[in-house]
Amino acid sequence: MGVIMVSVKRLVLDILKPHQPNALEFSCTLAKVGDDYHVSLTVIEVDENTETIQVVIEGNNINFESIQTAISDMSGSLHSIDVVEVQSEADKE
Amino acid sequence: MKPLNQIRFLLRITRTHGIVRRYFVVNGFDGALTMLGLIMGFVLSSSADLSVIITACLGAAIALGVSGVSSAYVSEQAELRRALGELEDAMIADLHDSAHGEATRWVPLLIALVNGTAPLIISLLIISPLWLSKAGISLYISPLYAAIIIAFLLIFLLGVFLGRVSGISWLRSGFQTLLIALATVLLIYLFAGG
Fold first, then answer.
1. Distance from A61 to chain B by nearest Cα, in Å?
2. Direct distance between the N- and C-terminal alpha carbons of chain B, in angstroms, rounded to an integer
3. Spatial CA neighbour of B131 closest among B186, B192, B61, B193
4. Does B13 contact A21 at a Cβ distance shorter than 8 Å?
5. Do A77 and B91 touch (CB under 8 A)?
6. Phi and psi at residue B100, in whole multiples of 5°?
7. Contacts of A52 (CB under 8 A, 6+ apart)
8. How would residue B185 be classed by pLDDT, with cut points 50, 70 and 90?
9. For residue B87, what pLDDT is reported?
10. Tens digits of residue pLDDT in B61-108
11. How far apart (Å, rounded) are the C-alpha atoms in residues B145 and B150?
């Protein structure tokens, strides 16, 4: 049996973040982490200093570690991973 | 991220764009009026040597610069640390290594530099005719009067800048600040001219 590669195709993340950087800047920074990422951001709740957002990231092979680093660099805090879609495929090499 | 974009980003997330602008105008205005006052004093006393005037003005300019840097740094650092603490409480997280943590370290320094260099540069521009005259370059008018004209011009330009920021007529705003400079000159003349 050959090596099986698993790639992450879709993530739905629940994040707490400050008001700044704003939703547009936040999602653009996440999209820049990969070269084919599609990011969709929804603001769920707004408080005095923070806002809770839901971020949907779609891509061919999402690098979760880099996404997590980008979130914490922007002062965000990842609360939960709500949805994950992965796909396995045999390594052709 | 390019350094300029990084600075813009840090100023945006700390919402300190307005503060930088305000400090530039407030302390720039301070520098211009201080130099105007000093030079008016020398015009009225009409006995000091040019090198004495330059030394006195340069001393005041450096003091204004150092005062601007130190006071802004201390106060802005305290303000931003407090804001970061509040944000950390709300986030229930340590934000030291985040963009907000970085902004808390760098933005006070940036604001301090603006606050210090604005009066210093404006003062140096105002006393530049004195230097030129000392270097042997002949001016059409007395170097002290040339310095006063430059002071008026820079004060007018600060007003123009304020007018553009606030969206009101730049000409009106420029003349408003110019009026303040004229009132200062009048006060100096009334109290020190006799």
1. 24
2. 60
3. B61
4. yes
5. yes
6. -70, -35
7. A14, A15, A16, A43, A44, A45, A79
8. very high
9. 92
10. 999 999 999 999 999 999 999 999 999 999 888 898 899 999 999 999
11. 9
Contact between B166 and B140 under an 8 Å Cβ cutoff? The reply is no
Q: Do B95 and A49 touch (CB under 8 A)?
A: no
CA–CA distance, A77 with B98 (Å, rounded to integer): 10
Q: Say if CB A58 and CB A72 are below 8 A apart.
A: no
Q: How confident is the model at residue B174 (pLDDT cuts 50, 70, 90)?
A: very high
CA distance A16 to B132: 59
**Whole-number pLDDT of residue B3:** 80
pTM summary value = 0.80
Alpha-carbon distance of B62 to B75, in angstroms, equals 20
Cα of A21 vs its chain's centroid, Å: 16
CB pair distance less than 8 Å for A47 and B99: no
Q: In the β-sheet with A38-46, what is the strand arrangement from edge to edge?
A: A38-46, A50-58, A4-18, A77-90
* Facing residue for A77 by CB, picked from B13, B93, B97: B93
Q: Give, in order, the Cα–Cα distances in Å from A72 to each of B98, B127, B177.
A: 6, 49, 46
Interchain CB contacts (distance < 8 Å): A and B? 41
ipTM value for the complex: 0.75
Report the gap between the CA of B81 and the closest CA in chain A (Å): 15
